[in-house]
Design a protein that fits this description.
mainly beta; Seminal Fluid Protein  PDC-109 (Domain B); Jelly Rolls; 6-stranded mixed β-sheet; 4-stranded mixed β-sheet; 1 helix; elongated
Length: 206
Amino acid sequence: MPKQVRLRRGSAAQHSTFTGAEGEITYDTTNKRLVSHDGVTVGGKPIDGWLKKTTGTPLVAQLIDSPLEIGGGDSETYGLAVTNQASFNTVAINADLQVKDLHYTQQGLVYNSSIQINFALGQYTAQRISLSGNLTLTGTGYLFGSYRQLFVTCDASIRTLAFPSGWKFVGAAAPANIAASKVGLLHLWSYGTTENDVLARWLVQP
């Protein structure tokens, strides 16, 4: 009969007050997972998941059959670094910084006289709005390197536009309005953490 090797084990509550020896692995019976220890950290470090690596050639694709979230990095530090070319569905990016078939995720905004642009809302780079009244834009969540794009469609009346006083328009002054039945495109680049760090550019249908 083969020998059976069993690790020290305990509930999640027991782990929360336990400091294992350096290099020790225990088993959390509540969450059904392994916990690694360094001899110092109370509770250890849970090992929640595994990435299976196929042995052999590094050109063989590795399958991750669940969503992957990367929590590291910040506005000035990469959360994900890829040495060689990468493919994201229809987006291909290579080491020469060439991008093809790049599509921004879009969000349709419900009209309100005041709309807030959230520069920290990573999943929505491009937003669109149809005006049925005047529009005042405000901003929040300013981050270095954040980019936003707003596609504006005007109804059958001329509509006034207002922007945060700190936004700096380049190429032309901030528009005071948009003409009836015209479309406009607002580009916004944030290079800091306040509204004074935003560069803006407005393009409008002639």
